[in-house]
Design goal:
The structure is a single chain. With about 280 residues, this protein is of the alpha/beta class. It has one domain: Metallo-dependent phosphatases (Purple Acid Phosphatase, chain A, domain 2), CATH 3.60.21.10. The chain contains 8 helices and 13 strands. The longest helix has 14 residues. It is globular. It starts with a strand and ends in a 10-residue tail after the last helix. Bound molecules: zinc ion. The site of zinc ion (ZN) has 6 residues, from loops.
Length: about 280
């Protein structure tokens, strides 16, 4: 079973699907699932954009991809996604319309819920065990969305009490997971005052094979977590640079075969075929 991992797509919802399609064609290997580490840019209503997104959207219309391409059905996109037949499962970041996501989350009793008109983009409920089946393997993961906060603020960018309760419940159950995805980095891995405290107990007790996160703006990096077991992987934000190219480490492939997990970023040569000005054409 193969899983493609991205982070911080900021409205370029279609891009990971296009990259996965190209990967399958180029390497002749099937991808079964896309995981996305938050800042989806899920803004159905342009009036509800947060300040940072308004600033970015003025420079780059692609930030508005959710409302333009994933809110109402576009037949070409629908056909493409139907043929591709892969779901993208995300965690919330800090840049989302959280009221919109709250409404979707409250209506759905499953561990993850669809947010788009094609039912291809899902968001994980934070701290809830997720399982995905493909190729006769099962793959267990958990998503923890939003960002951490040290100042007891509770606006919706920050992790909420009901999510902390879910995490505690999961820790009490102690089920093993293959992968943890979050938007934020674990607190002790970043500057004082930043990061998320809630990730450390999950890493220490559930000991996932790998933890993927985005958000910090730091380069792609793999290191061994302080639990001495988990590969901690900073996925590079899916953002085009000034020359219109994608950065190293913005797409990572995880492979699970007979219970054994391996992973690598895709090559720079592969990324070169996607350019800011041409990918959407
Ligand atoms: Zn973020």
């Amino acid at each position: 079973m193969k899983i493609a991992i991205f982070a911080d797509i900021h409205g370029k919802i279609l891009l990971p699907f296009k990259m996965v399609d190209a990967y399958q064609k180029q390497y002749g290997e099937k991808i079964d699932l896309i995981l996305q580490c938050g800042d989806i840019g899920a803004f159905p209503n342009i009036e509800n954009l947060d300040k940072a997104t308004i600033k970015h959207a003025k420079r780059d219309e692609q930030e508005l991809g959710f409302s333009k391409q994933f809110l109402y059905i576009n037949r070409d996109i629908e056909q493409f996604l139907d043929k591709l037949d892969i779901d993208m499962v995300c965690v919330r970041g800090n840049h989302e319309d959280h009221d919109f996501l709250d409404e979707k989350e409250a209506k759905n009793t499953n561990s993850r819920y669809p947010i788009d008109c094609y039912h291809r983009v899902y968001v994980c409920k934070s701290g809830v065990f997720q399982t995905f089946y493909a190729d006769g393997e099962d793959f267990d993961f958990m998503g923890i969305g939003r960002i951490g906060d040290r100042k007891q603020r509770n606006d919706k960018r920050f992790i909420q009490d009901y999510e902390r309760r879910e995490i505690k419940r999961a820790l009490d159950q102690g089920q093993k997971i293959d992968i943890l995805i979050s938007h934020d980095i674990s607190s002790e891995m970043t500057s004082p005052g930043f990061g998320m405290d809630e990730l450390r107990p999950v890493l220490n007790q559930l000991k996932p094979f790998a933890h993927f996160f985005g958000h910090t703006g730091q380069p792609y990096k793999v290191e061994i977590d302080e639990n001495n077991q988990t590969f901690s992987v900073k996925i590079k934000e899916l953002e085009f640079d000034v020359s219109g190219n994608l950065p190293e480490g913005c797409m990572f492939i995880v492979d699970k075969v007979n219970g054994v997990i391996e992973g690598d970023p895709v090559s720079i040569d592969f990324l070169c075929q996607f350019n800011k000005h041409t990918w959407l054409l």
